[in-house]
Amino acid sequence: xxxxxxxxxxxxxxxxxxxxxxxxxxxxxxxxxxxxxxxxxxxxxxxxxxxxxxxxxxxxxxxxxxxxxxxxxxxxxxxxxxxxxxxxxxxxxxxxxxxxxxxxxxxxxxxxxxxxxxxxxxxxxxxxxxxxxxxxxxxxxxxxxxxxxxxxxxxxxxxxxxxxxxxxxxxxxxxx
Length: 176
Prior knowledge:
This protein has 176 residues and is an alpha+beta fold. Helices cover 28% and strands 33% of the residues.
């Protein structure tokens, strides 16, 4: 199992922005989780809307990965999230470019950003949002584990379970 660093915050502007701005201070495999993001975002700078303390909002810092590994990293995240959500009896499907859906409702989003130097990604930041306990999404076509299973989940417990799976499966997909 790979080693990792975990920092958790009640609130941040964006977990991904925090890692991009401070990547020099953190080692490879740093996880940053926030209970709420003021400026959470997805693909194409779309806003990621989430109620405070109802969903998993976190980012992962990956360092010094060869550019040839970018597909492997995307595959690692995608398959790990699908397997994790399936634990709860929910069958998500991947929808390009980086989302997970149950039927026509979004349950998770992934945002992968990188800063590269020659043939290496100096820094990859993978932002992930998973709808866990949120019930109201306004006009968004979204769902959550809670809506799909009629249960309320402990976010710290669910996050630890997912974090352990991600750390455990990293080397299965990505050559360090």
